[in-house]
Amino acid sequence: MTCHFQLAPGARVTTLRAALREIAGNSDSTPQRLERLYLDSFDRRLAAAGWVMEADRSDAGSTNLRLRPCRGESDEPLLCDPPLPRTAGDCSRPRLRARLERLLEGRALLVESIGMLRIEAFPCLDAHGKLVAILRLEQPAAAKRAAVLRVHAITGFEGATRRITRQLRASGLLRPLRVDCAVPLGLSLPTYAAKPVVRLRPGNRAARALAHLLLAYTATLRANEPGILNDWDSEFLHDYRVALRSIRSWLGELKSCIEPVARREVKASLAHLNRMTGALRDLDVLCARLPDYVSDNVGAAAHRLAVRAKAARADARADLVDYLQSASYVAAMARWSDFLSALTKGEHAGRRGRERVDGVLDRALARRRASILAFDADKAREDATVMHELRKECKKLRYLLEGFQSLFEPAARERAVLELKTLQSATGEIQDLHVHLGLLTQLAQTVRDGDDEPAALDALLQQLRARLRTLEQAQLARVTTALARFGSRRVQRIFDRLQEKAA
Q1: Please, are residues 67 and 53 in contact by the beta-carbon 8 Å criterion?
Q2: Distances (CA, A) of 135 to 123, 240, 448
Q3: Which residue did the predictor score with more confidence, 15 or 71?
Q4: Helix, strand, or coil (residue 113)
């Protein structure tokens, strides 16, 4: 049991301190200074799920780490040595680690806020000298931050703590804390969105509506650059590429809204950026899945292949970092920014740029939907590139629904996106397996050139080819099922209703 309070309007900390001494039997408190850090993922997954992770660093050098519910306390405090955990796997407590893995889903923990606190603890004893509660006054060093009082009950003495709490309430010095203790210290609320919602109206001109959408996703793209450069976790690159692919897809799907020359000028640099980021993303996914691919073979050859994959990933990352820090990237993004600024002002509008956005969007949706329904899954059994085309068609339709989501009836849009995700997931697995088989073949060759046991490596590669092809055949069956489901009358009625009820 823990209660949190803040000062009532007009109350002073000095008056409260005197009241706390009286309630605690006039016991003095030795102030302690500590540094409090709040940790969360870049996209604030802990905060969104209602959790707070805080770490208190004392002058003595120890660090107390807590994961607690918002407006609550931790039931599993943890002393940890520097550095602070960066991933869920860095936490030694099994229960805490499992909870973080579920909440973070692979994202890194980053320090979101830091503040200095002055702590005074007032132990409350009963008539028999037993500790029944601790009153903990926390004063942020920043003058504009509010003081917080925590009333900690000792197990078995909850009744005594409730009496102390009533006495504190009756003093008129305090009121219940309306927000989490983290907020007075400056912890920011969730603001980042990998797929921001842009409020559009059906009657908006198509070119300007597209410009607002491109601006929002460009902000998401740029927000992920520090995480890529610092290699905090692989999801920064993933979010960057989703934003980039969405932008490129909309430029293609709504190309009639933009003047051709202006569109061609930015299209080439975006395509180059897609290639540069794609190499690292492919290796990120391969390195994550390689342990599963070689789970039946833990010999030296598998170890050498894994080492080579990590080295290739490091090389690809170095190439991408060099590019993102290059003058050519700065110039490309400056040209892109100028293009968006002009498009927002009404410049560069194409032949359909001044039409209503709902009409232009409706034609694009119908075109992509028809392409998916016309797909022949049998052709993909002999050529993986054909299956990749289906995957791209699914993505294009999904990007239209997600980007222009404010124009659709929410329930119908969510159901339509869910159906697309099912189909896209099956096709995506096949593409990943195809790409990974090619990468593993290349990596194995580089290892084999200087290997003392090439036969073992050849045998491993043969096993991997057989395994990945088996997985690919299983995914082909999934695609056939998912495609039949997508083409069913029940699912198509969802898309019919989606376009009929466009806001």
Answers
A1: yes
A2: 6, 47, 67
A3: 15
A4: strand
Are both 445 and 298 inside the same structural domain?
yes
In a domain, 201, yes or no: no
Please determine, for residue 501, whether its predicted confidence score (pLDDT) is greater than 70.
no
- Classify residue 190: in a domain, yes or no: no
pLDDT in tens, 117-171: 888 999 998 888 889 999 999 888 876 677 889 888 888 888 998 999 999 999 9
Length of the chain in terms of residues written: 503
Copy the structure tokens of residue 61: 């050098």
Check residue 251 and give its pLDDT: 96
| Cβ 503 vs Cβ 408: under 8 Å | yes
Q: Give phi and psi for 352, each to the nearest 5.
A: -110, 10
| Helix orientation angle between 300-324 and 260-293, rounded to the nearest 10 degrees | 160
Q: Let me know if 481 is exposed, middle or buried by CB neighbors in 10 A (0-12, 13-18, 19+).
A: middle
Nearest 5°: CA angle at 159, between 157 and 162?
115
- Please state, rounded to an integer, the average pLDDT across all residues of the chain: 88
Residue 503, pLDDT above cutoff 50: no
- Percent of the chain predicted with pLDDT > 90: 53
**Matching residue, tokens 């949190």:** 4
Ramachandran bin of 480, using left for φ above 0, alpha for ψ from -120 to 50, beta for the remaining angles = alpha
Structure tokens, 426: 């099956």
Q: CA 110, CA 202: separation in Å to the nearest integer?
A: 40
pTM listed for this prediction: 0.86
Q: pLDDT tens-digit profile of 170-197?
A: 999 999 887 777 776 666 666 788 999 9
- Burial 53-83, CB ≥16 within 10 A → b, else e: bbbbbeeeeebbbbbbeebeebeeebebeee
Domain, as residue range, for 225: 206-500
Q: Assess whether 381 and 468 both reside in one domain.
A: yes
Q: What angle do CA 56, 62, 68 make, to 5 degrees?
A: 35
Amino acid sitting at position 245? R
**CA separation for the pair 134, 152 (Å, rounded):** 5
Domain match, 175 and 210 both: no
Q: Is residue 418 part of a domain?
A: yes
